[in-house]
UniProtKB/TrEMBL annotation, chains A, B:
Pfam families: GST_C (PF00043), GST_N (PF02798). One of its GO terms (biological process) is glutathione metabolic process. This is glutathione transferase. It comes from Carnegiea gigantea. It catalyses: RX + glutathione = an S-substituted glutathione + a halide anion + H(+). GO terms for cellular component: cytoplasm. GO terms for molecular function: glutathione transferase activity. The keyword Transmembrane does not apply. Its EC number is 2.5.1.18.
Amino acid sequence: MASQQEVKLYGSWRSGFSRRVVIALKLRGMPYGFVEEDTQNKSADLLKYNPVHQKIPVLVHNGKPIAESQIILEYIDETWPGYPLLPQEPYDRAMARFWAKFIDDKCLKSVVKASWGPVDEQEKAFEEVQENLSFLEEEIQGKKFFGGERVGFVDIVGNVIGYYLGAIEEALGQEMLTKEKHPCLYEWAHEYTSCNIIKENHPPRDRSVDYFRPQIQASRASN
Amino acid sequence: MASQQEVKLYGSWRSGFSRRVVIALKLRGMPYGFVEEDTQNKSADLLKYNPVHQKIPVLVHNGKPIAESQIILEYIDETWPGYPLLPQEPYDRAMARFWAKFIDDKCLKSVVKASWGPVDEQEKAFEEVQENLSFLEEEIQGKKFFGGERVGFVDIVGNVIGYYLGAIEEALGQEMLTKEKHPCLYEWAHEYTSCNIIKENHPPRDRSVDYFRPQIQASRASN
């Protein structure tokens, strides 16, 4: 049945949001086609499929588009059987949604501000990053993954911390997630990036560092 | 069984986010206790239950807290049987989540910016409001409610447009949602505020206007 379905993902190799969907589809064992988008010159298809935000990722299932990475993950979880992304119990599901939202709304925003933001706001943003990571530190304590014994919804959304933060730190020449301050989260990031599914489906670290470096330099130069 | 459960909502009469949870619990027929929070002087309970954001609403079910209004609505939908908030089909669910997120991330932010934001950014924000409302106009076309024939997830989240925008407009002395520009959305707002469940569980319009007016005046004075 799955083979009769047309599943296309519009994304970009460098987008952590696209990577989340890739990971979810791979975990689910769902075959799909990947359309690499040039975010500087968006395709007519992307603009048609996501007229509101005009952003990747967009998953198109039998011609019907779904945008926003976390919403796509929920859709995958509800549509095809297989590896579960969200936990089963309503309270655990609510907690997973809470932390995933926290990662996007708070952690990621503070990391971006500390790395690319106006220079005079970077110090404050760096403190916010530390505070946000401390909340995640508390949450991951005593667990291998946010999803328990295996990678789940929050881990996949957490790729921006588990994978991309390391590349940003290297491009920036400044650490944010350290073994001293956030030992459990640091260990989680290590476990996470060591998983085959994550390693195989994220760009090589050097390539991400090379992508972030000029952006950081341009932002510093313009400040 | 329901009567053996302890359900407490920490909220505020004036918060649209709290009202969403009230509406969902009422539609679901779930008895609950309401704890009115003074957002200027937050209770120890609120800080304990939502240490990350320290914000209302928080639903506490048998001692376990859930924060963030949309996440609480999903929890209610998954926990107790009764009136369904989200649609049943995965694609429809994804669309409902998409529009609900759009309302919070885009519409509401542009309304706040146009009303309370820095004076020199208000004109641009006003245009953003118009553009955002146009997307909702397109989505509601041909339907009574976003949920179809009856109030659903998007309608409940949409209280910030359906109910509160009117009060903000009145306090501001400027219309944003007009019959001329957005006839279907305008009609939806009318239908929505005419529902007994909405009327009975939102503060009287005058009280909301009185709440918004000094905020708008203070913001204008400080600009």
